[in-house]
Amino acid sequence: MSALLYNGDKDISHERESRCINMLFVILVLYVTGIAFILLSVFGSKTEGLSTKHTLYTIGSAIITIAIFISIGYAIQYLTAALYGL
User: Fold this and answer.
1) Which one of 3, 18, 23, 78 has the minimum C-beta count within 10 Å?
2) Total Cβ atoms within 10 A of residue 56
3) Are strands 10-11 and 6-7 parallel, antiparallel or unpaired?
4) How far apart are the C-alpha atoms of 67 and 70, rounded to whole Å?
5) Contacts of 67 (CB under 8 A, 6+ apart)
6) What is the Cα–Cα distance from 28 to 49, expressed in whole angstroms?
């Protein structure tokens, strides 16, 4: 059992926790960036053209959609790992 938990001096569970924190940070940054683009399209300068606002809104929506799919994939991966760990 200890051979499964330890790989030399590195603790595998610590590596998994580090990857988890990194992935959550990436997802959070994607959500914040997407929301920033959408807010910029809504509350942006009045001199911007309509196509610029639509472009900002589309980019923000696309970024949030990517973040949602990454979140779903990450949740499936986490649940699968938890089920195999039982």
Assistant:
1) 3
2) 19
3) antiparallel
4) 5
5) 27, 30, 31, 34
6) 30
The residue type of 25 is F
The amino acid present at 53, given as its one-letter code, is K
Structure tokens that stand for 26 in this block: 């990436």
pLDDT in tens, 21-74: 888 899 999 999 999 999 988 887 776 777 888 888 999 999 999 999 999 998
Domain ranges within the chain, ordered by starting residue: 48-86
Q: Which two tokens mark 81?
A: 């790992």
- Is 57 in contact with 41 (CB distance < 8 Å)? yes
Q: Are 36 and 80 in contact (CB under 8 A)?
A: no
Rounded Cα distance, 7 and 14, in Å: 11
Looking at the chain, how many residues does it have? Answer: 86
DSSP state of 44: S
